[in-house]
Amino acid sequence: MSLETLGNKKNPRVIIIGVFHGDEPQGKYLIEKYFEEIPDTALFLIPCLNKTGFVNNTRTNSNGVDLNRNFPTENWIKSEKNEYYGGEAPASEVETRELIDIITKYNPKAILSLHAPYKVVNYDGDAKELAEKISKIINYPVEENIGYPTPGSFGTWAGIERNIPTITLELDEEIDIKDLEEPVFDIFRMLERY
Asked: Is residue 126 within 8 Å of 30, Cβ to Cβ?
C-alpha cells in the first residue's frame, strides 16, 4: 500500500481523509498536526490521499482523474476530460482502490473527509446527527446536498451505498490554516469517542 496512514491501524472506529483534491491541502496539515499532538489517537488517519495532485497543486491526480468521481457507484458515468473527470472506468485509479481496500478491511463506524472551500458540513447516509454535532463545533451549516451532481463520489459509495455515516467537511480556505486548528481538533477529539 502506497498511502501514508497514521494512528490506529488495529481496530479504528473512524477514518479521516485529507487531500482528495490536490489543491485542497488543508486536510494534510490539520491531520499531521493533530497526530503530532496526539500520536496515540484512536483515529485512522490518511493525511494525503492524492499525493501527485498535492505536489502539483491540481484537483486531479497524475492521470487527470478527480478521485472524488472515481468510485464504483451506481451513478458513476464516464465524463468529459476536465477537472471533474471520473476516469476511464470506476475505481481505475490506484488511490481509489487503496481507499476502497482500507474501508472494506476496517468497516469504520464513520468517515470524515476534509475538503475546501464551501464552509459547510455535507453528509451522506445516516450521518445527519453527526453532521449537526460537527456543525455546532465549527459553526458551518449542515447541507445534505452540495448543490451539484457528483457521480462516482466517495460519499455516495461509502455513505449511501455502504451505509457508513460519511461527512464531507468543506473548510474555509480564506483564513489562516492555524485558525482552523482549534475547531477541527475539537471535531477530531469528538470523533475519538464516536
From this structure: no
pTM over the 0.90 mark: yes
Residue 110, Ramachandran bin (φ over 0: left; ψ between -120 and 50: alpha; else beta)? beta
| Integer Cα distance of 92 and 76 in angstroms | 12
Q: Which CATH superfamily is domain 6-192 in?
A: Zn peptidases (3.40.630.10)
Nearest to 103 by CA among 61, 64, 72: 72
**What are the structural domain ranges in the chain?**
6-192
pLDDT band at 177 (very low <50, low <70, confident <90, very high): very high
The span from the CA of 43 to the CA of 110, in Å, is 10
In eight-state DSSP terms, residue 69 is: G
Euclidean distance between CA atoms 5 and 124, whole angstroms:
23
Per residue in 85-135, pLDDT tens?
Answer: 999 999 999 999 999 999 999 999 999 999 999 999 999 999 999 999 999
Find, among 96, 108, 85, the residue nearest to 8 by Cα: 108
